[in-house]
Amino acid sequence: MTHVEDELTSQPACWTRAAEEAGRHRDALPAPGERVAVVGCGTSYFMAQSAAALREGAGQGETDAFAASEFPHGRSYDRVVALTRSGTTTEVLDLLGRLKGTGTRTTAVTADPATPVMTAADDLVVLDFADERSVVQTRFATTALTLLRAHLGLHTDSVVADARTALATDLPRGLVDCAQFTFLGRGWTVGLANEAGLKMREASLSWTEAYPAMEYRHGPISITTAGTAAWMFGEAPEGLAEQVRATGGSWIAGGLDPLAELVRAQRLAVAVAAARGLDPDRPRHLTRSVILTPDAAETA
């Protein structure tokens, strides 16, 4: 079993623990009414998108999501929450450093406190039980999002049950053989769709795309045909499933909690990698954390 397989199968237990610990981290996480930005890089950026949409949708306050490198420093926030598994990513540390002493409170959610992020952020939430050996993120990302869902009162035991179902049931027949995958979301699940696409690219070198579901009709559906698949995270717009099937493409309806659907997509990425003779623990051109030297940062 690869590291990523072992780690993705542990997610139900990690989610349960994160939900149980959410209350302990209440003071480090955004309070109702705060103006908040959630930031990250790669997978963490897509989890930030989902977390921001969930919080704002819950009426907790204006919440934005940014890639750490694209944070708008001219904009005022009460708190910035940085999601960083390694605690060493250059863009995140640079952002936290620039925010020191500005009056904006910063919180880092990390898997490893023995890293520079410990002193870079004002508050620290450590999810070391969800740390990973694999380059490809699975359980840390979903556990961090579960923590934030629980903090908002939006996590239930049924989410964990759905994750167990996602691990126990077979993937749709023929899905591994598809040549192209499109992931679709609405609201907070757009971030999950983006992450599913990234996971497929990282682990299996697949041609994948992700869109807000209503945007799929505005051009992207033109690539859909026999041998392609469109996977919906959450409730689909009326008529979209029929339109996809009419192209000859496969439609995958997300019947589980959308976060559990992401677990299914993670499993698909591993399965496609195996079918193509790839090692998902060693994705091409990737490292566990992007750490830029001064010379590299100047040319990036």
TrEMBL record:
Q: Which domain of life is it from?
A: Bacteria
Record keywords:
Repeat
Task: Give the Pfam families listed for this entry.
Answer: SIS
One term of GO molecular function:
carbohydrate derivative binding
GO biological process terms on file: carbohydrate derivative metabolic process
Q: Has UniProt tagged this entry with the keyword Methyltransferase?
A: no
As given in the record, the signal peptide range reads none
In this chain the SIS domain maps to 25-169
Does the keyword field hold Repeat? yes
Stored PANTHER family? GLUCOSAMINE--FRUCTOSE-6-PHOSPHATE AMINOTRANSFERASE, ISOMERIZING
Protein name stated in the entry: SIS domain-containing protein
Q: State the organism of origin.
A: Streptomyces misionensis
